[in-house]
């Protein structure tokens, strides 16, 4: 079992590294901005060295994030399957589950379509929205005004969400997909 203080240093270091890479900074660039040596920053990122509050504050300023974001305990939110309601109001043979989302203005939806079924038409989402479709099982058609696009198990497609569309399963086997709307 990893000691809690060791876990804290590893989480803090991993967050520093992730933010550094997100900001496209080299180890040297961040070290200079934060007033640390390259060697010390490297040890902090690997979770091999605890750091002082003043160094944590310097790193947070250099990365442009609140120090609390870097120090917060890792949080995993679990929603058990039986707590996620299933709705069938989106077409005969269509089952939809709205999954909890990690972000505001992001919807994550699981669809199951019975053989030869289709959803009712979806109204366009907010202007500029995007959708990502990932087929978990079977084949799905994305139907828009001007085309039908077929996706098979493992396929992923991205499309504008601000146009009317619907989903269809033209086959004799059930199909499932995940839909993420941003």
Q: Specify the CATH architecture of the largest domain.
A: Sandwich
- Tally of domains: 2
Q: Which CATH class of the largest domain is shown?
A: Mainly Beta
State the helicity in percent bands: 25-40%
The helix/strand order is HHHHHEEEEEEEEEE
- Averaged pLDDT: 89
Which homologous superfamily in CATH is the superfamily of the largest domain? Jelly Rolls
Rg from C-alpha positions? 23 Å
Which strand-content bin applies to the residues?
Answer: 25-35%
Give the low-pLDDT segments.
none
Give the class from helix and strand content and strand pairing. alpha+beta
Organism: Brevibacterium linens
Keywords: DNA-binding
GO cellular component, one term: cytosol
Pfam family, one: HTH_3
Q: How is this structure best summarized?
A:
The chain is of the alpha+beta class. It is built from 5 helices and 10 strands, in the order H-H-H-H-H-E-E-E-E-E-E-E-E-E-E. A 6-stranded antiparallel β-sheet has the order 1-2-3-10-5-8, with no helix packed on it. It has a 4-stranded antiparallel β-sheet with strand order 4-9-6-7, with no helix packed on it.
